[in-house]
Amino acid sequence: MIISIEGIDGAGKNTLVRAIQRETGAQALAFPRYEESIHAQLAAEALHGRMGDLTDSAYAMATLFALDRHGALPTLERFVDSDELLILDRYVASNAAYSFARTADEGVIGWVHDLEFNRLGLPKPDLQVLLATSPETASQRAIARAEQDQSRERDRYERDGGLQKRTYAAYERLAAENWAGDWLISAEQTDILKAITLKR
């Protein structure tokens, strides 16, 4: 089965994914796949101001992130209807939340759903977890992380506090609507592990 951990930058997704791995023996995959995906690498260059006006288009950026996930389709498909557990650090909902936060376009949420789940054939997750970390706390963590690690310089999205707040609100909306499947909103590892156990 596939569990996606969602949240804004600095929410603590990576920390939670590693904790769940230790508890369950699950495999993990993080998106964007900056080390191996040309689409993710191009998106990163754009977010650091090296691709001209590419970031001005929310649809263009969303397409790059979607194509990055499509490149991992063989890995994702192995966990569909499987006894094995795959934990994702971000998945399709991140594209929907950030795109809506950037555009306020009601249609972009459905567009992301159609692009990734229908046209690109990505499997829907069995559970999506929104980390209930406030935008203020997440921002402080992202700043501290960048100060401690030169390789973690904040990108255009991370530096935009207003975008992070709007994205968190968009995530809350997706969770309330059970967009693309079941959701859990929590910051407690025990709640998340219990939900995963019930799903299995």
TrEMBL record:
Q: Which GO terms describe its biological process?
A: dTDP biosynthetic process; dTTP biosynthetic process; dUDP biosynthetic process
Specify the domain of life of the species encoding this protein.
Answer: Bacteria
The scientific name of the source species is Corynebacterium occultum
Which family does the record claim for this protein? Belongs to the thymidylate kinase family.
Q: One MF term in GO for this entry?
A: ATP binding
In Swiss-Prot or TrEMBL terms, this protein is called Thymidylate kinase
Give an example GO cellular component term for this record.
cytosol
NCBIfam families, per this entry?
Answer: PRK07933.1 (NF005923)
Q: Which gene encodes it?
A: tmk
Any stretches that span the bilayer, and where are they? none
- Pinpoint the Thymidylate kinase-like domain residues: 5-175
Keyword terms, alphabetized = ATP-binding, Kinase, Nucleotide biosynthesis, Nucleotide-binding, Transferase
EC number(s) from the headed UniProt entry? 2.7.4.9
Annotated PROSITE patterns: THYMIDYLATE_KINASE
Which Pfam families does the protein's record reference?
Thymidylate_kin
Q: Which InterPro entries match?
A: P-loop_NTPase, Thymidylate_kin-like_dom, Thymidylate_kin_CS
